[in-house]
Amino acid sequence: MNEIKCPSCGQVFQVDESGFADIIKQVRDAEFSKALEERQALLEKDKQQAVELVATQTKSQMQASIAEREAKIAELEAKMQALSHEKSLEIEKALLEAEKEKDALASQLKEKESAVKLAEETTKSSLQETISQKEAQIAELKAKIVAFDTEKQLAVTQAVSTVEQERNELASKVELKELEKNQLEASLKAQFTEKLQAKDQMLAYKEEEIQRYKEMKAKLSTKMVGETLEQHCEIEFNKLRATGFQNAYFEKDNDAKSGSKGDYIYRETDEEGTEIISIMFEMKNENDETATKKKNEDFLKELDKDRCEKKCEYAVLVSMLESENELYNSGIVDKSHRYEKMYVVRPQFFIPIITILRNAALSSLQYKSELALVKSQNIDITNFEEKMNDFKEGFARNYDLASRKFQTAIEEIDKTITHLQKTKEALLSSENNLRLANNKADDLTIKKLTHNNPTMKAKFKALEAEQDDE
Length: 470
Hints:
By secondary structure, the chain is α/β, with parallel strands linked by helices. It is 75% helix and 9% strand. It contains nine helices and eight strands. The chain has a six-stranded mixed β-sheet, with helices on both faces. It has a two-stranded antiparallel sheet with strand order 1-2. A hairpin with a 7-residue loop joins strand 7 and strand 8 (342-345). Helix 1 runs antiparallel to helix 2. The longest helix is centred in the N-terminal third of the chain and has 131 residues, at 88-218.
């Protein structure tokens, strides 16, 4: 569907594809008619200009021809005046011929003008026929527009009636939903009223219980309050001792040699006597009317100290302190970031914390047993390996010393070889020099000594003469 907005009233209509195409066609036909009228006006103007141009050109040509003929006539007249009378007949004949040509040219001009008028009338008739055809098309399009307007009004009327019907149906549905909503609100209000009454009764009962508990705690001393929590934990444990903790030890810590002691120690072993888990417990409670309120953090350091002295693996503070603190009320609180293997719980989590830590220890008990067995089996191998390592270390140390001594000896030998090599090279060099000296001595002769030396020549000759005289 396409939307069409009225430019005058601003109303938007929904039109299908065929109607929208018809409207576009109408707009295009209107534009085409307008363009056709403009084109017709341009053609009319061009035709008028063409006719005027042809007439102007023909007139100018005729005038030029007439002027030329008139010039010839004037020339002939001049000749005729100059010539003798004998030529008068020829001149008249020439004048007659010129008149005939002039009439022929005038008749040709008239024929051309009639042809132009005929062409103009033909063009007008064809344009008139085209205009009549377009007017017929325009009338047909106008009839289609009227029919489309009628169909559009009918479609709008039908659409409005459909929308009104749907609106009435939606209004009835809204009323029905409103009625259902009111009924649901009434039902929910009744349910919430019952729940609020039950809650008020429960709160009244809780307030009575709290008041009774406060009265009971007010009758107890501070020591009795703490002992009450200890007794509660001991009773809870003894309920499950026979079934779940047959090999467990859970007694009060009475050893105060180090200056302090916890409240209870829990230890559990397997059938072979191997300890599975050990926990140091501390129970803390106080009256609501106590002037100085303690915090759980105040007892963690001392509890960690007692755990280490009694060689317990875990430490657990069962506390009723800081009753409004959501951290401790949410469940088991891990304090391992402050003290190793430290937990703080409320009394209701006393048994669960034992169970959780015990299950974790049981899961690792098998690995502990296997590790102890492997250690006991491998103790001889460990000693052998230690002796082997000692032997290896001693042998390596002696080998290192011998290797360094051997390296030193090799270095000294290399130095000696280098020294002897230098001595050898010096001796070889001396031998070469002696050989060269010997060669030079062998080459030395009297002839060479006296060559180019007149004094020596004279001496040797004198000596030879003396030897001859003798």
